[in-house]
Amino acid sequence: MLTLVKGEPLLTRAVRGLIDSQCVDLVIVTAPARRVASYENALLFPEGPSLKHHCRVVEDRPGVSPLRRAFDAAELSAEQIVLVHDALRALAPPALVESVVEAVRAGARAVVPVVPVTDTVKIVEGGVLTTTEDRAFLRAVQSPQGYTAEALREVADSPDPLAALGAAVHLVDGHPNALEITSAFDLAVAESLLESL
Q1: Are 2 and 9 in contact (CB under 8 A)?
Q2: What phi and psi, each to the nearest 5 degrees, are found at residue 92?
Q3: Among 49, 70, 88, 168, which residue has the least CB neighbours within 10 Å?
Q4: Could you report the per-residue pLDDT of 35-74, keeping only the tens digit for each?
Q5: Rounded distance, CA 176 to CA 179, Å?
């Protein structure tokens, strides 16, 4: 979350992307107790006043999933829209956020951005290649993911909220910039993308 990309933490960039979409009123960030102050400092934006009036950092609680913790902290009504975002996808553009929100507004209970899988995917059993998956049926899932508050309340404790909602999940086109930044290679790609913007 605090890894720097071009001098700014992933968390800072992820939250800015949400706020810049102009369709997000509140961002709840969950943090381990030892990281709360660091996460709050990452939300002090250098180019203007702090966005703390848009953001709250809440401490994780033992035995409570971060998703449930954030959901409960937001105190939402059933008709409100909730986005679940991974700060490791810090370069997700505001337009992607808007498309997810618009799909929920249009009636979807849950929305996820997806991109086609371009690699060849093999099934391995006991160390042996057995089958090639048909890429036509595969999609890589991105974030932010959107939900009605009512739908997310039902699945916030599930290890896989999207799977729990099944056919209720609507797909929208993802964006190549919304890559998950988890390795040195990903970081180099992210920095290259920022240089090209």
Answers
A1: yes
A2: -60, 120
A3: 49
A4: 999 998 888 765 555 555 578 899 999 989 999 999 999 8
A5: 6
The whole-number average pLDDT for the span 167-172 is 94
pLDDT for the residue numbered 37: 92
Structure tokens at 71: 């959901």
Distance in angstroms (rounded) separating the CA atoms of residues 8 and 136: 37
Q: What pTM does this model have?
A: 0.89
Query: CA–CA separation, 167 vs 55, rounded Å?
Result: 32
Structure tokens at 23: 């369709």
Q: Are 194 and 6 in contact (CB under 8 A)?
A: yes
Structure token digits, residue 58: 């809440």
Helix/strand/coil for 173: strand
- H helices present in 78-148, as ranges: 94-105
Beta-bridged to residue 28, according to DSSP, are: 56
Say how far apart CA 108 and CA 90 lie, in whole Å: 25
